[in-house]
Structures are given as structure tokens and as C-alpha cells.
Amino acid sequence: MDKAQEISALLAPTVASMGLELLGAEYLPSPGGAVLRLYIDVPQAESAERNVGIEDCEAVSREVSGQLDVEDPISGNYTLEVSSPGIDRPLFAPEQFARFVGESAKVGLKLPQDGRRRLQGRIDKVEGEAITFDVDGQPFEVAFDNIDKAKLVPNWEALGMAPKKPGKKK
């Protein structure tokens, strides 16, 4: 279990007690001071009624800051950031991939697979710890434990926010 997973396991019950879900954490060590970034969301059952707001992020930040001071899982200075998942939502667990079957994702792998370290494709299916992507019309199965980072790729056209194509001025 890496530092981010360790911290997620530590803080998830606290975030859940606030009626929110801790999707995952990113721990970015640095000589000048680390960054701990937490991603929170409303539980899936409530996602149609409300979204995470700045007030939720502030409340979680206050609550977990105290817990982190007591539990002290990070030595040295660090900056705590609490965020909603945003439109390009990071994915931290197989269940999160399963929730977004049919959506497009960018994935970075820990170890190369079939000569690739990165891929972008549609999440096709999730079976246990195996996630299958449709990459250029071909199935590409990845073991969850080989995924370093993954995030959804927004469909800007479906959101009505497609960038304008550059054209020639007349």
C-alpha cells in the first residue's frame, strides 16, 4: 500500500461521517514540502440531487486537517488540498471504473504493456481487478494494480462545449 492509499484508508471514515465519499488521494512528495490532494464527492445515490461545493471542501479540509495532525502519517511540511473530482475525474478504484463504463479515459501504466505506458480508450468492462478498454476498436485489458494514474476524458461535444475549429479568415 503506497502513502496515498494509506492516507485514503485513514481518512475515508471521517469523510463518510460527513455524508461525503473520499474518492482517493494523491501524495506528491517534494523537497520544499509535499502536497496531499484529496478528491471528494457526494455518494453516487445523491449525485443527481447535488454536487460537491466549496463549503464541502472547506469542511473536509478542517476535519481531516485535525485528524492528520493527530495521526501524523506525513513527516515534514505538506500542503493539504481538498477538491471535487472535476470534469476530468481521476479514477482510483475498480468500482469507479465500473461506474463509468462507456466513458473515455486516459490511463498511465506502472509497467509497459504491449509496448505501451499510456493509453486512451473507452472503458468497456470491469471484471474484478481487470479493466478492459476499447482502444481504437481493439480490446486492451489492464490489471488494476498496473494502473499508475487514470482520469476520465470529457466529451466536450456532448457537453455542448466543443472547441471551435480554426478556420481561414477571408
Keywords:
170 residues, GMP Synthetase, Chain A, domain 3, SH3 type barrels, 2 domains, three-stranded mixed β-sheet
What does this structure look like?
This protein is of the alpha+beta class and 170 residues long. It has 2 domains: 3-83, 2-Layer Sandwich (GMP Synthetase, Chain A, domain 3); 94-152, Ribosome maturation factor RimP, C-terminal domain (SH3 type barrels, Roll). It is built from 3 helices and 8 strands, in the order H-E-E-H-E-H-E-E-E-E-E. The chain has helices spanning 3-17, 54-71, 94-99, and strands spanning 21-28, 34-41, 78-83, 104-113, 116-127, 130-135, 138-143, 147-152. The radius of gyration is 18 Å and the shape is globular. The termini are far apart. The mean pLDDT is 92.
Describe the main β-sheet briefly: 5 strands, antiparallel
Report low-confidence residues grouped into runs of 5 or more: none
Highest-level CATH class of the largest domain: Alpha Beta
As a percent range, the share of strand residues is: 35-45%
Going by helix content, strand content and strand pairing, the class is alpha+beta
Summary, kept brief:
The protein has 170 residues and is α+β, with helices and mostly antiparallel strands. 23% of the residues lie in helices and 36% in strands. The chain has 2 domains: 3-83, GMP Synthetase, Chain A, domain 3; 94-152, Roll (SH3 type barrels).
Structural topology:
Layout lengths: L2 H15 L3 E8 L5 E8 L12 H18 L6 E6 L10 H6 L4 E10 L2 E12 L2 E6 L2 E6 L3 E6 L18
Parallel strand pairs: 2-3
Antiparallel strand pairs: 1-2, 4-5, 4-8, 5-6, 6-7
